[in-house]
Amino acid sequence: MSAATDLATELAAREADIQMLRVELEETNKGVLALYAELDDKAAQLRDANELKSRFLSYMSHEFRTPLTSMSSITNILLSRLDGPLTAEQTRQLEFIRGSTRELTEMVNDLLDLAKVEAGRITISPEWFEMVDLFAALRGMFKPIVSTASVSLVFDEPEGEIKLYTDDKKLSQILRNFISNALKFTPVGEVRVSARMLDDGCVEFAVADSGIGIAAEHIPNLFADFVQLDVRLQKRLRGSGLGLSLARKFAHLLGGRVAVESELGKGSRFAVTLPTRFDPATAPQAVP
What we know:
Helix Hairpins; 2 domains; two-stranded antiparallel sheet; five-stranded mixed β-sheet; Heat Shock Protein 90; 16% strand
């Protein structure tokens, strides 16, 4: 009788323990569910905030484009002397306005591209083209800009015939950014653009300059959004801080990568490596 009583007592105690564990598990499950719900709310808030930011950038940029286009057109008309001659000082001031308008327009375009990328609305339009045609277009584009004898822009013709199937406009935008930065930070010297086939079937495009170079501590953050170097020349030549970030994002969307090598006082080398044939099946759908 005593053994049966002890067994019943032990079973009752275990049942009580099991019931207590069941209650604790239910409370834990409720807490986990509440945590998941809170995380979902936070994720939704972040998505909404990101969408609002992208929409704001897009709307703001569009609003800026119209007056900037008007300013550029009016300045070009005045500098063409259609309304009469200009003094040297008037010409200098109008050139300053035109240069500032061009810089602001580039900022606006960068902001629009950033908004499109973050909203997932960038369209990749690949087509076949030859490297010599891309270099010829870039050479013609920068010819009016390189107006000083102290800096030379050199395009090395690629060895052999290199054909690519990718978005030439995105690639051109990447290279334009690299070349613009190289010219901006090379007061005296040379900027050299080249392309070469790699063993893995990719093509590497490089823009090397003999400019002021970049300190080692600044290199890891170069391709982040809105990054500007804290150097004297950078303070005088302000930009949006988005060019290199967009170059990295575009390269990623095209299935490629960017890289930089630089030494302070000895120049820099920016490169983008892309597959010769863009494959939408393997291309990433989002940027990091």
